[in-house]
Amino acid sequence: MLHMPRFSPVVTPSRVVTGPELNKLVKNASPRERAQIAADLVQGTLQVSSHTYKQAATLAHVSFGYTATASALTPEERAQLARGTLSMSRLHRRRRRADAELDRIVEQFGADAIWRALERYTQPDCGVTVAEIVD
After folding, report:
1. Which of 37, 105, 117, 134 has the fewest CB neighbours in a 10 Å radius?
2. Rounded to 5 degrees, what are φ and ψ at 111?
3. Among residues 93, 54, 92, which one has the least CA distance to residue 72?
4. Residue 38: which pLDDT band, with cuts at 50, 70 and 90?
5. Mean of pLDDT values over 24-39
6. Under 8 Å CB-to-CB from 13, ≥6 apart: which residues?
7. Would you list the domain boundaries of the chain?
8. Pairing state of beta strands 46-49 and 15-18?
9. pTM score, whole prediction
10. Distance (Å, whole) CA 115 – CA 121
């Protein structure tokens, strides 16, 4: 009886890069090197984590704007979107409308006034007043 030895396939460990790192690799690569990068992606020897918005939008065949809008949703809004009780277009328009309202407020009151308000709003409350510290 002929015995065939078992050979394990050669397993190349995966290399994991972030989305911005992939962009940098591709930007500085020749066409031959880009083809090798693409082959590595297909074969799984190069993996990407933390895609950029543009990469994610391209992979999902959706607009950059929808990607940004969906990324900013609360868990409840994501659940409503998944159930179909909330539409993506309505959420996207809402975001643009909110941005326009903020722009109008900044124009009305000025950036300095907005910064002062933000500083007051985010100032920590230590439970003591300045008068108590001085005394």
Report:
1. 134
2. -65, -40
3. 92
4. very high
5. 95
6. 45
7. 73-124
8. parallel
9. 0.57
10. 10
45-103 pLDDT per residue, tens: 999 999 999 999 999 999 998 999 999 899 999 999 999 999 998 888 876 667 777 88
3-state secondary structure the chain: CCCCCCCCCCCCCCEEEEHHHHHHHHHCCCHHHHHHHHHHHHHCCEEEECCCHHHHHHHHCCCHHHHHHHHCCCHHHHHHHHHCCCCHHHHHHHHHHHHHHHHHHHHHHCHHHHHHHHHHHHCCCCCCCHHHHHC
The two structure tokens encoding residue 29: 């690569």
- What pLDDT digit, counting tens, does each position of 91-116 carry? 888 766 677 778 888 888 888 988 88
